[in-house]
Design brief:
This protein is mainly alpha-helical. It contains ten helices and no strands.
Length: about 210
């Protein structure tokens, strides 16, 4: 309650609304949505989505359509992957939860595969259409050498890291032992953390270091 009051008084109003929506979704999830097949995955994904949007409201950032598509796809992928990992754990333990009993492994596999593909592919589309113009002397010199590099698409260099990240995360959840939140999995797995760090360095470097 204190956090809500402080956000209402000191932070952007839309951040307050997103926080209110997030809390409302969490209440509904714990009451009955976590026992509703498919809706439970969608609810978890909406939670990820609201967190990012809340951050955008704080810094007053514009989120492009392609980035929103990437965000939605990644959120659905993480939610479906979490359910798939949980199912593997309860199958090994010989027990189950009400929600997981409504899913089958092939069904969750199809969800995970579908959203994993859409996650990295939507990021690839974002890099195709939303890369910033690059105007440093080095870039202009290279552009004079070859017309093939005159397009401003350096963000495409991050695509291999996003694909590796998705593949590594899939391996972890299919091992059947990683059911924690995505941020805990990220921080506890060295290859995944390394890939994400390199991806982040490239994104920051391309957006803020290679053009002015």
């Amino acid at each position: 309650m204190t956090g809500l009051l402080l956000s209402y008084a000191t932070l952007p109003f839309f951040f307050f609304l997103s926080l209110l929506a997030y809390l409302g979704i969490q209440v509904l999830y714990n009451l009955f949505l976590k026992s509703a097949v498919i809706l439970d995955i969608l609810t978890i994904a909406i939670g990820f989505f609201l967190r990012v949007y809340a951050g955008a409201f704080i810094i007053n950032a514009h989120l492009s359509v392609w980035f929103l598509l990437c965000l939605i796809s990644a959120a659905l992928f993480l939610a479906a992957a979490k359910r798939r990992a949980e199912l593997a754990v309860v199958e090994q333990a010989g027990s189950t939860r009400k929600t997981l009993s409504l899913y089958t492994a092939p069904l969750l596999d199809s969800y995970v595969a579908m959203f994993a593909t859409s996650a990295w592919l939507s990021w690839a589309l974002f890099t195709f259409f939303e890369s910033p113009p690059l105007t440093t002397s080095t870039w202009l010199f290279l552009a004079e050498i070859s017309k093939a590099i005159t397009i401003n698409k350096l963000l495409m260099l991050t695509i291999p890291f996003s694909i590796f990240g998705v593949m590594r995360y899939l391996r972890l959840i299919y091992e059947g032992s990683r059911t924690e939140s995505p941020e805990k999995v990220l921080l506890s797995d060295f290859p995944l953390l390394t890939s994400f760090s390199l991806w982040a360095i490239l994104v920051v470097g391309i957006l803020y270091g290679f053009h002015y």
